[in-house]
Amino acid sequence: MSSTAILQVTPEQALIAELVPAGARVLDLGCGNGALLDYLQQVKGCSGYGVEIDDDKLLVCAGRGVNVLQLNLEDGLALFEDRSFDVVLQLQTLQHLRNTEKMLLETARVGRIGIVSFPNFAHWPNRWSVLRGRMPVTRTLPYEWYDTPNIRVGTHADFEVLARRNGLNILDSFGLQAGRAVRRWPNLLASVAVFSFEGGV
Amino acid sequence: MRFADGLPLRSGASLAGYELVYETYGELNAARSNAVLVCHALNASHHVAGTHEDASRSEGWWDNLIGPGKPLDTRQFFVICVNNLGSCFGSTGPTHVNPDTGRRWGADFPVVTVEDWVDAQARLLDRLGIAKLAAVLGGSLGGMQALSWTLRHPDRVGECIAVATAPNLSAQNIAFNEVARRAIITDPDFHGGHYDAHGVLPKRGLRVARMIGHITYLSDDSMEAKFGRSLRNASGAGRGAELAYSTQDIEFQIESYLRHQGDKFSEYFDANTYLLITRALDYFDPALAFGGDLSAAFAAARGKRFLVVSFTTDWRFSPARSREIVKALVDNRIDVSYAEIAAPHGHDAFLLEDPRYHGVLRASFERIAAELTR
């Protein structure tokens, strides 16, 4: 079981898993098929819950023994008490939510550390596409402008501004490109932005 | 199965000498570790799955879920369902003779609670030599019993699967129960619950009670889809239906349906049992002893694993009530998964076959079975 679980996480997920302390209590918002949570449980001795709205993904989680709660993130995180988790993960979900800023604050409220990732709209091929007058369609942003589920498009640099405005303390940030961490000019050179932060007060 | 020792009840009373009837399915393994207890709801019995040999149309009430190859697979698990005390399907209840008086218990049958039922079930498991259940499963009132198992006998449960249930009844829920009870009690044939001595049955009251209950088990949408405003005397082709302009005759199909359900129910269900079981629902409230703090109540269930399931259109035991249970478990860092199934059928959905609902249960039981053999 544990060996297959290791195979199932993507290089991006493995890089993010490195940010999670061993034995941490984890809440994974938008946990998908539960692969990362399964990996964190088996490899790093973590525990906790995933939140997922999709029926089919829920089924995969239930089968692999990952705790999964079928909740709509747009309804907020009222189910969870302040600082009840060591780490709250919000990977590739923030861009789908209407209330992005509120969700970010909820993440900071519930977790000691928040880790988010989202498509970086300022990645150079996206800039190039817009310069040519067209919205980008790439591996990370595979949708056309009229059917994209990404209702919030932001950049690595934008998030820094939003985090500062909300008094969040950024602990670490880097980009992800082709399964590798990008620490030099991530706003230009990476298709995905990753931030680890803690609540201000 | 006969129990000679008195069962102390929550009310302070004690039930001396009682009988529990039950059914089992599948085989208990050598380690005695694969038992799953299924708890029944208001008007159901211990006949949860399969069919009785000499009777047609005798499928168990959860036969779509339990059996060989089904989500709760009886090739893997030893499934037990116990008829609860106070019922009218075989276990000691108001229709039985009170040994102290030589007459039927009737209205004198002691008030029983969810906790009393759970304790009686635990005694039955003792007799069967089952120290620990792989899982306890129940829907609605059965879900309350499943939850109660993890609080009263936490060491004897591996996993708890609670479907379409609530941590207690809302005022609206109690109100529906009270209307049903008043319908029965004010039936002139009720005679203070001793109708048996008068050779009558309060069938009118039972019919109305069942009609009210039935409305609350269905969603507005499912009732609309099934009946809408269609008339009983639809003339088919041409101009449609003829109205009778009567205040007392059946005009709409929904009326016909409810009356039919009421008639059927009043033929086989006991009125005193209906009063007892709705009261058990009303009284269930594990948070009461903790000043209303459900999280404090569920501290006793630490180390267990839960699956909580609700249905979006269930307004009798709404998803919000299930989320209260989930929150209490999360507050205690208890392993829990929660499925909120988008089903159109209201509270009744827990008895129906829905691929998402049954899929989650199947995945969970397959995992439990795999962990048993590990």
Can you tell me the residue ranges of chain A where pLDDT is under 50 for at least 5 consecutive residues? 1-6
The overall pLDDT average of chain A reads 91
Number of helices of chain A: 8
End-to-end separation of chain A:
41 Å
**Strand order in the sheet with the most strands of chain B:** 5-9-6-10-11-12-13
Molecular shape of chain A: globular
Figure out the total of helices of chain B.
10
Structural class of chain B, by secondary structure, is: alpha/beta
Q: How does the overall form of chain B come out from the CA principal axes? A: globular
Widest β-sheet, arrangement of strands of chain A? 3-2-1-4-5-8-6-7
Oligomeric state of the chains present here = heterodimer
List how many beta strands of chain B DSSP finds: 13
Strand content of chain A: 15-25%
Q: How many angstroms separate the termini of chain B?
A: 33 Å
Structural write-up:
The complex is a heterodimer of chains A (201) and B (374). Chain A is an alpha/beta fold. Chain A has one domain: 3-Layer(aba) Sandwich (Rossmann fold). Chain A has helices at residues 2-8, 11-17, 35-44, 55-64, 100-110, 124-131, 156-165, 186-189; strands at residues 25-29, 47-51, 68-69, 85-91, 111-119, 169-177, 180-182, 192-198. Chain A has an eight-stranded mixed sheet, sandwiched between helices. Chain B is an alpha/beta fold and 374 residues long. Chain B is 34% helix and 14% strand. Chain B contains ten helices and 13 strands. Chain B has helices at 114-128, 141-152, 171-185, 203-217, 220-226, 253-268, 271-283, 294-297, 319-331, 355-373, and strands at residues 2-3, 7-8, 14-15, 18-19, 22-25, 35-39, 66-67, 72-73, 78-82, 133-139, 157-163, 305-311, 335-341. In chain B, the strands form four sheets. In chain B, strands 5-9-6-10-11-12-13 form a seven-stranded mixed sheet, sandwiched between helices. A two-stranded antiparallel sheet of chain B has the order 1-4. The relative contact order of chain B is 0.14. The chains are: A alpha/beta (201), B alpha/beta (374). The interface between A and B is medium-sized, with 20 and 22 residues.
